[in-house]
Predict the structure.
Amino acid sequence: MNIKSGDYQRVFDAIVMMNACAEAVMFLYGFIRPILSGRGVTMALFDYSELY
């Protein structure tokens, strides 16, 4: 199996995309969960600010 330099770039891009997707999913989960539990958008923003 021959590995070209472009393959490494593709693997790196895939890892970066997976990290970005995971972060987006965690953000959405943290944002939507308080809304679904009836605490409203304000509490969702407040909860998110505590995470970081």
In short: The helical segments are 5-36, 40-51. Residues 20-52 form one domain. The chain has a mean pLDDT of 76.
